[in-house]
Design goal:
- This protein is α+β, with helices and mostly antiparallel strands.
- It folds into three domains: 63 residues; 140 residues, Triger factor/SurA peptide-binding fold, CATH 1.10.4030; 106 residues, Chitinase A, domain 3, CATH 3.10.50.40.
- Helices cover 61% and strands 14% of the residues.
- The chain contains 13 helices and nine strands.
- The strands form three sheets. It has a four-stranded antiparallel beta sheet with strand order 6-5-8-7. It has a three-stranded antiparallel beta sheet with strand order 2-1-9.
- α2 crosses α4 and α5 packs across α6.
- The N and C termini lie far apart (103 Å).
Length: 390
């Protein structure tokens, strides 16, 4: 009986111990489940953070805008590619100028003018390099305005034109004139043929040095070609005729001298003879004060705005006197034509600046909405300074 009682007691204790172990096991299981849930949540948070970072860097950041032009976004990746492209070109030009300066400074007395010119160009390039991030935004705004103009006018740039422009530029860079043997008559240099493999190799090396992709480079070339086409189209729209006047003038330093010259002409003396004796204007002196045909604004560049305005208000054949930019002028308008042919140099100047003038006008127009959105974090780092020794 004693043995049976002992067995029941041991069995009871074993049962109690097993219940404790079961309870502890359940508790540990709950703790493990909680830990696993927390680890899972942590992993999910990390994955989300990484995904957001990747999406931001690869999708959202490149597709964000540095400016908008009439609602059209200028994307960050296009902006960063252009900044990188421009920086590389600035560094290359600066390096070339510095090499040239180093050589000229070996004989400064023989190269004084060139040294001064190179130093001026170098300063301008260094300023442009510093302003490259800001200037790139304005360059892309201009390009977008031109693109919108091109779209309206049906102007396009084809892939073939982009390919041809790239090939032409790189082939020209590789072509070196071959010196013909002297035969007693002057020979023109001939170009050395360039294999396509050489062109392709140079292209790859340049892209690698610039640290931009083929598609980015082609986008930059396409924009440049489109700007050229828009410039040509706008140049073709420049009027070739306008208000012109045939002008004579005498320039003096004092009003008394101008009044004396005017009185002599009014007394019957020839304008040209008086001009040759009195005028201090070296440009017209030999021609007896004859300026020739001019249009509005043309005289301002040399004689000042007051003279320009006076000339086009003066009656034909009338003799007048006006002060402009500190000098005094006796003026006569020989002839005026409301629709005469514009002077060739003025027409060329207006045609060459057609795109620039149009862009400035468009940017001031109330129907053009431009919003600049560039932030410091959108400006790409400069990878070239150490390479070029800056």
């Amino acid at each position: 009986m004693a043995k049976a009682s002992s067995k029941r007691k041991a069995s009871s204790e074993a049962a109690k111990q097993t219940k404790k172990q079961i309870a502890l096991g359940r508790k540990e299981a709950r703790q493990n489940r909680i830990i696993l849930i927390l680890v899972g949540i942590l992993i999910a948070v990390i994955v989300i953070i990484l995904a957001v970072g990747i999406i931001r860097e690869l999708v959202l950041k490149p597709s964000s805008s540095v400016a908008t032009v009439n609602g059209e976004k200028i994307q960050t990746d296009d902006y960063q590619n252009l900044v990188t492209y421009n920086r590389y070109n600035y560094y290359s030009n600066i390096s070339s100028l510095e090499d040239g300066l180093e050589q000229m400074r070996a004989s400064p007395e023989d190269n004084e003018f060139l040294i001064s010119f190179y130093e001026q160009q170098l300063g301008q390039l260094q300023t442009a390099l510093a302003l490259a991030p800001q200037d790139a935004v304005e360059e892309l705004i201009d390009a977008e305005l031109a693109r919108q103009k091109a779209e309206q006018a049906g102007i396009e740039v084809t892939d073939q034109e982009v390919d041809q422009a790239i090939d032409d530029d790189f082939r020209a860079a590789l072509s070196q004139p071959a010196q013909e043997p002297i035969t007693g008559t002057e020979q023109l240099p001939t170009s050395t043929p360039v294999a396509q493999e050489q062109v392709d190799d140079l292209y790859d090396r340049v892209l690698n040095a610039m640290q931009i992709s083929d598609s980015a480079f082609r986008t930059i070339v396409r924009r440049s070609l489109l700007l050229e086409k828009v410039q040509d189209a706008l140049a073709g729209e420049v009027p070739t005729t306008g208000l012109v006047a045939d002008v004579q003038l005498i320039q003096t330093e004092t009003e008394e001298e101008a009044l004396s010259a005017k009185e002599r002409i009014e007394s019957g003396e020839d304008f040209a003879i008086v001009a040759q004796e009195v005028s201090t204007d070296t440009l017209t002196l030999e021609d007896g004060g004859a300026v020739g045909l001019v249009t509005t604004g043309q005289l301002s560049m040399r004689y000042g705005a007051d003279l320009d305005a006076y000339v086009f208000a003066l009656e034909v054949g009338e003799l007048g006197l006006v002060e402009s930019d500190g000098m005094f002028y006796v003026v006569k308008v020989v002839e005026r034509d409301e629709n005469g042919p514009l002077p060739a140099d003025i027409l060329t100047q207006r045609q060459n600046s057609a795109l620039t003038d149009w862009l400035e006008e468009r940017k001031q127009s109330p129907d053009v909405q431009i919003e600049r959105q560039l932030t410091p974090e959108q400006i790409p780092p400069d990878p070239f300074a150490p390479y070029f020794g800056f």
